[in-house]
From TrEMBL:
InterPro entries: CopG_antitoxin, Ribbon_hlx_hlx. This is DNA binding CopG/RHH family protein.
Length: 87
């Protein structure tokens, strides 16, 4: 049986753990992918939304554990990755 992954509270603790542990011994099934945003955001957009829609977006962003603007940007990126819908 694999061991649970330990909680690491600092970069130093993570570096020490990775340097000394055999990662094959650990269970990574509870891990979630993390997306780092490295590209600079150089444009700003103002968008008017109905309050109910903004409230729903804020709630979903909170459920996802991310800031509202990042959640909205990711939703737009995902929508653009899908094939266009024909009417």
């Amino acid at each position: 049986m694999k061991m649970p992954f330990p909680v690491l509270d600092s970069d130093k603790a993570a570096e020490e753990f990775v340097a000394s542990a055999d990662l094959a011994d650990y269970d990574f099934s509870d891990m979630v992918p993390v997306r780092f945003e490295l590209r600079r955001k150089d444009k700003s957009v103002s968008l008017r939304l109905p309050e109910s829609l903004l409230d729903a977006v804020r709630a979903r962003a909170e459920q996802a554990g991310m800031p509202t603007q990042r959640f909205m940007r990711l939703a737009i990126e995902r929508a653009l990755q899908e094939p266009p819908h024909r009417s």
